[in-house]
Amino acid sequence: MKTFLKSFGGAVAGTLLVLLTMYFFIKPESNESKGGLQAHQTEYVGHSINHANQVPVMPASMPSALPEAQVDFTTAAQKTVNAVVHIKTEISVKPVNYDNFFDPFRNYFYPHQPNSIVAFGSGVIISPDGYIVTNNHVVDGADKIMVTFNDKTEKEARIVGTDPSTDLALIKVEGDNYEYLNYGDSDKLKVGEWVLAVGNPFNLTSTVTAGIVSAKARNINILGGVSAIESYIQTDAVVNKGNSGGALVNAKGELVGINAAIASHTGVYEGYSFAIPVNLVKKVVEDLKNYGETQRGYLGVQIRNIDAEFAQSAGIDKLQGVYVAGVVDGSGADDAGIKSGDIIVAINDKPVNSLSELTGIIGQYRPGDKVVVKLNGNDNSGDLVQVTLKKRDNSTNLVRSSDSFYNDVLGAWLQTASDNQLANLGLDNGLKVADVKEGILDRGGITKGYIIYNVNGVPVNSESSLNNAINNSKRKVVKIKGMYPDGVKISFEFIL
């Protein structure tokens, strides 16, 4: 016991001696000095910790900024799922060119009945009265379209209009008070911004995936045709078979795009998906509702992208803008004084550095609309010119799909062919046969869809031009040149 007390006492004495030494030789810094003992607060993701009277401990490597708070997608998802529908289409005959780019994600096909297939896809309700936007390749060739809502109710839809040049279609179901999505602004989307893809992949309804905007104004060359507009939003949100026609929304739940395609070697998602920008979607939808077909405006220029090799050969100092390789006579660009060799750097204050950016911007306007083009090249360095957009035939007339007329001589109803139809056939003008009655065309075996582009050596694109060409025929002989949508040319002549 005495030994224990002696040891304990020695330990206490030693401790006191150490403390006294520290007191006299080590002076605490003032609270006002750097790294003091003041209370401080460190912000973390989602919460904060209060440290009172502690010296802050710095990590070995301090990041320049704390990570941003996690984005909450729950509100955006709740807004979206009830406005995205499941689309089922019945197609009676399999198209001859069925094995094309869209086959891998043409919405989960499977046999339905002999000589019939069923396809699945997605659509987005854009108004309370039942208008739904989807991809053209979802409903192309459909004999019957059924729409299933998130509450499992089902209704049949009709096609209002389609636009193959943008791969968009507008369909409608009867009824009202539908939940719908508000348009956002795809021009304001930033690379790196969070987005949600909502649709029905692999026939699984109301599926939500998240990703970021990976790039904008992507051209992936899938639509074909000289009039095609490809200026996609690229994302890494997971998109698969059945997502086609579904919604791409921002964190606020606003519609910023319509999912359309994936880049894949296997037919399933491999990291890249593409959506049609909503600013283009809005314009096409308005055209289909008001006119039954799209109204395409053109600058009237031939464009070449500027890369390092071309810039060096052409003596261009900056890799900026797009190069005007040619100007169409009588076009809006020609009227405004744009010349070959000019460089377009912006349209309506929106930078333009590629053909896909240019077509994406111009695609939002109609014939007759005016745009301001900023030039940097030739004698127009830094100039701003106003261009009135025109159609391919250099007119500014807006044509409805229902605007048709009857010609007694031909025995047929005709209408001005749309710009998309003409562009896909490489034509500048033409009249489409809307219906055939008893008469010359019927006896010649001509059916609906045939496009007459020349009569007696004269281009035709209106009722008056057709009548003038027929009436000016020599020796009562009328020569007609035309083409079907598949490119088959048929020419014939008849005597009045």
Provide a descriptive summary of the structure in words:
This protein is α+β, with helices and mostly antiparallel strands. It folds into three domains: 71-292, Thrombin, subunit H; 301-388, PDZ domain (Pdz3 Domain); 405-495, PDZ domain (Pdz3 Domain), CATH 2.30.42. The protein has ten helices and 28 strands. The model is unreliable at 1-8, 23-69 and 94-113 (pLDDT under 50).
Summarize the helices and strands and which ones pair or pack.
Layout: H1 2-25, E1 40-44, E2 47-51, H2 74-81, E3 84-91, E4 110-113, E5 116-125, E6 131-135, H3 136-139, E7 144-148, E8 154-163, E9 168-172, E10 194-199, E11 207-218, E12 232-235, E13 247-250, E14 255-262, E15 273-277, H4 278-290, E16 301-305, H5 308-314, E17 322-327, H6 332-336, E18 343-347, E19 350-351, H7 355-362, E20 370-375, E21 384-388, E22 405-407, E23 412-416, H8 419-425, E24 431-436, H9 440-443, E25 451-455, E26 458-459, H10 463-471, E27 477-483, E28 489-495
Antiparallel strand pairs: 1-2, 3-5, 3-7, 4-5, 5-6, 6-9, 7-8, 8-9, 10-11, 10-13, 11-12, 12-15, 13-14, 14-15, 16-17, 17-18, 18-19, 18-20, 20-21, 22-23, 23-24, 24-25, 25-26, 25-27, 27-28
Question: Key features?
Answer:
496 residues, alpha+beta, Pdz3 Domain, six-stranded antiparallel β-barrel, 10 helices
Task: Give the number of domains.
Answer: 3
CATH class of the largest domain: Mainly Beta
**CATH topology (level 3) name of the largest domain:** Thrombin, subunit H
Residue-averaged pLDDT, rounded? 82
Number of strands: 28
Low-confidence regions: 1-8, 23-69, 94-113
The percent range for strand residues is 25-35%
Gyration radius, to the nearest Å?
A: 33 Å
Number of helices: 10
| N/C terminus separation | 139 Å
Task: Please bin the fraction of helical residues.
Answer: 10-25%
CATH architecture grouping of the largest domain? Beta Barrel
Backbone shape: globular
Q: Largest sheet, described in full? A: 7 strands, antiparallel
Structural class by SSE content: alpha+beta
